[in-house]
Amino acid sequence: MKLTLETERLLLRPFETSDAQAVYDNWASDPEVSKYLTWDTHTSVDVSASIVDMWVKEYEKPERLNFAVELKSEHKLIGGIDVVGYLDGEPVIGYALSRAYWGRGIMTEACKKVVGYLFEQGYERIHIDAVRENIGSNRVIEKCGGELVRTDEELFPLKNTTFTVNRYIIRR
User: Fold this and answer.
1) Is the pLDDT of residue 63 over 90?
2) Is there a contact between 77 and 91 (Cβ–Cβ < 8 Å)?
């Protein structure tokens, strides 16, 4: 589903195929950004282009929400936030943000907006996970009202690494 949301500082908009270079340059090629995520660091803009193309095609699915996070003041694409799937019919949110913008409350602002939208659509609970060592991501979730419900060991196959993952639920 193509949808645009707006906050004070951010435009949450659909990805476009022309975003591939910005995705690669601003976060997907940074190993610090992907360190605790399930996907590998992109090794070329071609990898980012194929992913962005896939995202654009997925907008045809009504249940698919995927937002490019654009900083309005700079007209710059700096991250992404999306519903990565559903657990027992409830949305699961994932996100990534350019390291240059960490610690500024940007992803918290984006996450709160997406959570609010999902609550408006009638969802009562939203799932969101973060690797325990990823302090910034855990803080984002907590600031969005996330309640830690359990901790699991999870293998990230692309990284061949097992992480301790905090499982949160955000309730309406």
Assistant:
1) no
2) no
Task: Give the C-alpha distances (Å, rounded to integers) separating 130 from 121, 164, 166.
Answer: 24, 9, 5
Q: Is 153 helix (H, G, I), strand (E, B) or coil?
A: strand
C-alpha span between 112 and 35 (Å, rounded)? 23
Cα dihedral across residues 13, 15, 20, 25: positive or negative: positive
Q: How many CA atoms lie within 13 A of 101 on its CB side?
A: 22
Tokens standing for 8? 């004070």
Produce one character per residue of 34-45: b if its CB has 16 or more CB atoms within 10 Å, e if not: bebbeeebbeeb
Tokens coding 73: 């003041």
Distance CA 50, CA 66 (A): 15
Q: Which domains does the chain have, with CATH numbers?
A: 5-171 (3.40.630.30)
Does the structure show a pLDDT above 90 at 93? yes
What is the model's pTM? 0.95
Say if residues 127 and 147 touch (Cβ distance below 8 Å).
no
